[in-house]
Amino acid sequence: MSKILMIVIDGVGDRGVRTPLSTAKKPNLDELAKRGINGIMDTIKPGIRPGSDTAHLALLGYDPLKCYTGRGPIEASGVGIELKEGDVAFRVNFGTVEGEGSVFDKIVVDRRAGRISETDELVKAVNEEVDLSQFGVEFTFKRGSGHRGAVVFRGDLSDKVSDVDPKKIGEKVKRCVPLVDDEKARFTAEVVNYFVERSHEVLENHPLNIERAKRGLPKANVLLLRGAGKAPHLPKFEERFGMKLACVSGTALIKGVVRIVGGDVLEVEGVTGGKDTNLNAKVENAIKALERYDFVLLHIKATDEYGHDGDFEGKRKFIEKIDRALEPILSLDFSEVCLVVTADHSTPVKVKDHTADPVPVTVVYDDVRVDDVEEFSELEAYKGGLHRITGNDLFNILLDLTNRAKKFGA
Length: 410
Ligand code: ZN
Ligand code: ZN
Description:
Alkaline Phosphatase, subunit A, 33% helix, binds zinc ion
């Protein structure tokens, strides 16, 4: 049976008529649009602004409106924490607090601790020195890239608790409070507050932070937890669709989505999930992965970052860089590989955040009804034969094209 290669250019869509995508020189993407069938896609539903996590769930055939339980568990899974059903996970930022007394009396002066990059020692100290056994709770804390990380609590816990992260500098660290009136949520908030207080004590006096202070750098002395969620129980991708799934991505959140549905994350040298990522290595490894896997997701992040930065030129130039890196894709055998090029959502440079503006999608495969679209762009895609579809529709169409769809009825 044919393999499926899905290339997701994160946030590549934009708003308006003159966009980074429509003005970029992208002969390879345009060639693929020419050879394929095109359309416009609302990853979740028209008007729903997708997160990258919910959008990717939809692109992988899951209904995020039914199965999404928050960013915490996906981030935790992305940094490599093995989740059990019922675990409560949070995203974590290393931040900087100043002031006297309890951590909850102190002021957050930096939410990213000066964008600290080396946190291994700090993570180790928290895991070793903070003890939640008096609550009958275990925890695992792991670092992500830069100042990011994730923590998972295991015990009789609730995810209906608030964030510790005030999300603004100049404000006090927020005390975690129950969001519902029940004992479990109250208990969970108590555990979280104890964890934040104790980890602050450990971090405040850690040699690495003493050293940072001496060099005039902000101490990474607080863990700002947010996005509590329970580990969802999702049917595994391979069991559901009979396909082995792998992804090439440098982004913890996307790796998390793939791991949570039971897929493999392929580690590729030089892949950072940032603007400096090795695109050629990504493309090469994704193509190679088609030998061992049935469905390969190739995720490219930096277009979204340029969108968040409001950088039109940066976004356009990075699209051109992607286009050059995609050259080898043109020589795939499209009788054996069904190729999709699309985005998870738009990240317009004017909005600097995700919007629900639908994104272009191109499917290249033998026997698709090739349409007249000659350009991979937001506006041209409207003229394509796929018309306007959702992310779940796209997934179903791929199953059908590759003869994997189950018949509905007799
Ligand atoms: Zn995204
Ligand atoms: Zn984004």
